[in-house]
Prior knowledge:
InterPro entries: Glyco_trans_14, WSC_carb-bd, XYLT. This protein is α/β, with parallel strands linked by helices. The protein has 13 helices and 14 strands.
Amino acid sequence: xxxxxxxxxxxxxxxxxxxxxxxxxxxxxxxxxxxxxxxxxxxxxxxxxxxxxxxxxxxxxxxxxxxxxxxxxxxxxxxxxxxxxxxxxxxxxxxxxxxxxxxxxxxxxxxxxxxxxxxxxxxxxxxxxxxxxxxxxxxxxxxxxxxxxxxxxxxxxxxxxxxxxxxxxxxxxxxxxxxxxxxxxxxxxxxxxxxxxxxxxxxxxxxxxxxxxxxxxxxxxxxxxxxxxxxxxxxxxxxxxxxxxxxxxxxxxxxxxxxxxxxxxxxxxxxxxxxxxxxxxxxxxxxxxxxxxxxxxxxxxxxxxxxxxxxxxxxxxxxxxxxxxxxxxxxxxxxxxxxxxxxxxxxxxxxxxxxxxxxxxxxxxxxxxxxxxxxxxxxxxxxxxxxxxxxxxxxxxxxxxxxxxxxxxxxxxxxxxxxxxxxxxxxxxxxxxxxxxxxxxxxxxxxxxx
Length: 450
């Protein structure tokens, strides 16, 4: 997240500063800079997305209308929306015996919609039901493992590994590199800004590679405090995509993020084999950990012009259970597909558990809960799951592009807890008709976490 120069004496006032969460957070912040930053962002938040939060219950909405209810249910991932008793909005995924439960429309024309007086919002025990545009629950596409026989060529797949490192266990990181390193892939290393020892050790490793004539291992000089749940995780991821594609022009197919605790279960060749399968044409294009991720993408692609296919993020605790060849093989078999593990299909429950109903802001190397969220964008289906993911280059490029959708989503996710666990899922869900299906698999299952 970028910080501007907030003046300590600057007077900032808006109604959101009066809520209990904001008052509590500001009272506990140490620096005047951070106090002003939080105040300023709070006053901006109300203007981001002027749509109220969604709850799947029988709460009374005094601005209720068919359009209002449809937006509520669409954002929470439901297939149908129903208005009844004037002020109630119902969300559901299935219609039971729909033909037998259809009644005369006049029975629904009883309660006038409080949000639109020229429309009706159901009757006594009857609902007006509308489709939201979300399809019924679909079968997940699970990858079929194809062993690598050592004969076929794996030169088609290029992976960008993003290693997100913390702690001091540099020996574990060397073991990890021994399993996933190949001259044909690319390795971007981010070390938490608070870890100077590990940072110096990674610079030594980079120098070792360069002495041998290998320049595909780069330690990022731009560093983030990658706190748990911080927006910097997503910001990092998107930064890496931007950097690698548009500045360094690296031609990679997939990006895979790993930590220092990961250990691959597949060999690199097997991973490549899975990613290689079913290649098809897609359109071009597509906030601390997210900021880092995006920084690496930007730098590797646009500055260094590295030609990678996938980006994988790793930490200092990661150790692969697959060899590098097995990993490459798996990626090769499912070429052009990204690996995104979803929470399931009850999006409303996920949004509640994930804290989407609150605004969070990152400052002083922690996340502050500053306000309740009353706004989601129109026509947006939110989604999320695990931040153990492998992102293909096509989706990576689109996520850091200047098009309206990814640009607005990047802004929205600067105020969301654990943004890396939902940003790419949401981007992909919105434009999957262009990018095809993803692979519903938790990438973490291919690694041992220490």
